[in-house]
Amino acid sequence: MAVQTAQVTAKPRSELGTRANRRLRDSGLLPGVIYGHKEAVVPVTLPRKQVVEHLNHGAHLFDLSLDGKSEKVLVKEVQYDHLGIEVIHVDFARVSLDEKVKVTVPVELKGTPKGEADGGVLQQIINELEVECLVTEIPEAIRHNVNDMALNDVVHIKDLKFPQGVKALQDGDLIVATVKEILEVAPAAVEEGAAEPEVIGRKPAEGEEAAAEGAAPAAEEKK
């Protein structure tokens, strides 16, 4: 099922720069830009909470209302803070409804592999895919049922079922998931009473032996 268009009202942004953007975010707003289709780049201000909610639900296509005019835009880049948590800026590209675009969508594995009964563990290797499709047909996710996966089974990109009109852009032989037995390696047992290894070094010169013997008790006291 294609993602629904997210409806958001934007406002032109006159003040630019790091300090201005910080003030916007402090007031609950989000800076962004709109570009593409050989039109001017337009800095905008967006309702931060609303945009972040749409992004968290996998929205790619937005219907932005700006100065009474509505246009379809595609999320091209989302910038986060240095911790990778807070959204601080969004870039949008103008698109047409009949335009094909390249986007990244998540891969969701559903079910429980039957191989788990034999000691297998499901390991997901690829969490997202780059796909090409019409801008109106961007899927929320590429989903795959893993119930029939036995121990040592492997799922490749070419094994996934894509919605009509959606094409993967990565090598079809890449592994998406596998069911493998995880072998625990026990630490090597230390033999009881094993002698500590001898430290090999130069033979102490005359006079050093006595000094070393006197220094040893002092070192033990510090411990």
List keywords for this structure.
223 residues, mainly beta, 6-stranded mixed β-barrel, 4-stranded mixed sheet, 3 helices, 15% helix, elongated, disordered C terminus
Please sum up the structure shown.
By secondary structure, the protein is mainly beta. It is elongated.
List the helices and strands and how they pair.
Elements: E1 6-12, H1 18-26, E2 29-36, E3 39-47, H2 48-56, E4 61-66, E5 69-80, E6 87-94, E7 100-110, E8 120-124, E9 128-134, E10 142-145, E11 154-156, E12 167-168, E13 175-181, H3 208-222
Parallel strand pairs: 1-4, 2-6, 7-10
Antiparallel strand pairs: 1-3, 2-3, 4-5, 5-6, 7-9, 8-13, 9-12, 11-13
Give an account of the 3D structure:
- The chain is mostly beta strands and 223 residues long.
- It is built from three helices and 13 strands; from the N terminus they run βαββαββββββββββα.
- Strands 1-3-2-6-5-4 form a six-stranded mixed barrel.
- It is elongated.
Total number of β-strand segments?
A: 13
Q: Give the topology string: H per helix, E per strand.
A: EHEEHEEEEEEEEEEH
Order of strands side by side in the largest beta sheet?
1-3-2-6-5-4
Give the overall silhouette: elongated
Radius of gyration: 30 Å
Largest sheet: 6 strands, mixed, barrel
Distance between the termini: 67 Å
Strand content: 35-45%
